[in-house]
Design a protein that fits this description.
globular; 12 strands; eight-stranded mixed β-sheet; 22% helix; alpha+beta; 239 residues; Nucleoside Triphosphate Pyrophosphohydrolase; disordered N terminus
């Protein structure tokens, strides 16, 4: 089963109509892990874990090290709400040339003035949604993904501190919204879909339909990795 999709998809490509493929059910991450303290502990004392098996080649250290793809960073932000922890996303403007209208995390290419992936993720977050660095507490990073569109994307996981304000940059961001972390860490919510395009029928991607949004592609893969990371952390605590 190949999980690497074509380098470019036509602008009219609709991921929502691609067929769903049955997958083996996995258990959700228990609620006790999905608290800010549980998340902090998971990153403070990381345990051995494996990336999403269907995309293991895209996280290969050898491929990442040898790739000439452009380096990028995204912020995966947790937010404490009255009902529990949620995660913040953006929906890209329909006017953009690449990935128009798609759900993503705040982020972008690492620039020469950035001191690394964390600095790039924080800068892009401020530029895209107006959240100042002083309201971002970084917990750690996750493995770098070699995307099918030619980027080496490193996720920076963080919590947004009380008092932060969101001011979307209108030319790039159409909407900022949140999804409960309990939804995102429940594999039963994910769909594995088969990519049917002119390039063939043997490629796949994950998707998470939620409310009016459709989270898919690289963003969904990073969330699957977070699931495996937190599930491994929980298992280690139970030993």
């Amino acid at each position: 089963m190949s999980s690497i999709s074509p380098p470019q998809l036509h602008r009219d490509f609709d991921p929502k109509v691609q067929p769903v493929v049955p997958v083996v059910a996995l258990p959700p991450v228990p609620p006790g892990v999905l608290t800010l303290e549980g998340l902090r502990e998971a990153f403070r004392e990381p345990v051995p874990w494996q990336v999403e098996p269907l995309f293991i080649e895209s996280f290969s250290a050898e491929r990442v090290a040898s790739s000439s793809a452009r380096h990028a960073a995204v912020l995966m932000p947790f937010v404490q709400r009255a009902g529990g922890v949620s995660m913040l996303f953006t929906r890209r403007s329909e006017q953009l040339h690449h990935h128009a209208g798609q759900v993503s995390f705040p982020g972008g290419c690492i620039e020469p003035d950035d001191t690394g992936v964390v600095a790039a993720a924080l800068r892009e977050t401020r530029e895209e949604i107006g959240v100042e660095r002083r309201f971002v507490h970084v917990l750690g990073t996750q493995p770098t993904l070699l995307t099918t569109t030619g980027f080496l994307m490193t996720p920076v996981v963080a919590e947004l501190l009380p008092g932060f304000q969101v001011e979307p940059e209108g030319d790039e961001v159409a909407e900022v919204f949140e999804v409960p972390l309990s939804v995102l860490m429940d594999p039963g919510r994910y769909e594995l879909r088969q990519l049917r395009t002119q390039w063939g029928h043997g490629r796949y991607f994950f998707a998470i339909p939620w409310d009016s949004h459709f989270i898919w592609g690289a963003t969904a893969v990073l969330l699957r990795n977070l699931y495996h990371f937190l599930a491994a952390s929980f298992s280690a605590r139970m030993r």
